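User: My collaborator sent over this chain with a note saying "see what the structure looks like." That's all I know about it. Can you take a look?
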Amino acid sequence: MNSTSQAPTRALLILNPKSRSGAEADLDDGIAALRNAGMELEVFYSGGPDETENAIRQRREQLDLVIVGGGDGTISSTAGTLYDCQLPLAILPLGTANDLARSLGIGNDLQHAFAVIAANHRRAIDLGVVNDHYFFNAANMGLGVKVTEELGPEVKKRWGVFSYLKAFSAALTRAQQFKAEIVVDGERHMERSIQLAVGNGRYYGGGNIVADSARINDARLDLYSLRPQGVWELLTLAPLVRGGKHHLAQRVFNISGQRIEITTRPGAMAIHADGEPVTQTPATFTVIPDALQVVVPRDSQELLSEEDKTHGTDPQ
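Assistant: Without extra context I'll predict from the sequence alone. Here is the result:
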């Protein structure tokens, strides 16, 4: 990772103590491998977002890299601090969904994630912002919020990778339709909806794809809205939503842009970002291009190449 003429990478590894359960041996081996590769590594066990923020800010002048081990919510909670401090991020996927790891091409395997960190290849990615809250993957309202509310720790523990399907089934009975005024880069649209999502990354909600062409470094936001429909219609639509091809269905409204304003009726609606409650409507969404340097696989196919970005092309 570092030649003898280069200074070692000074890194802070932030872990939730609960993250060790089920992954202790992999974490210990991975930490040892990073140190053996020459990384100066401090391990910090955090009790919550405030402790994490303080730890990063107190060490900001002594750090070259922040490694966060956890799920999407844990990693997302560091976004604002890392952006403010302009510190690079590396991730260890220790959650249920690990959607950011998917969007970066890292995946769920801890051994592979440690190898990616050791290689220390960095790319710039975008950050989404909703009402001054930063997010990596996606923010949503309506059915998606109900799914998150159903997705408690017990459900995750009992159902594992199937927990999102279990939560979705339960949330269907609670979903209600709403009216949304959507202004995208100054263009106004009126929609009836039961689920509305705005994505910065490519994956969200346990592997669903925000949009077929979405990338976390494409300098745009991708919105989709599910029009009111029955349970059977939603189930038949599910494969398209899962694969990011919902633009093929007339029951879905799709649009992309850099600034999105949403007002809902009959009243304010809760907005969750990266699986956590953050704000409510009315909401303004923006994107910050190339906001953070993130450690990714050198051959990641989930990111636009510099050539793709320059020419505005889509690798798919």
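A starting point for your reply to your collaborator: The chain has a mean pLDDT of 86.
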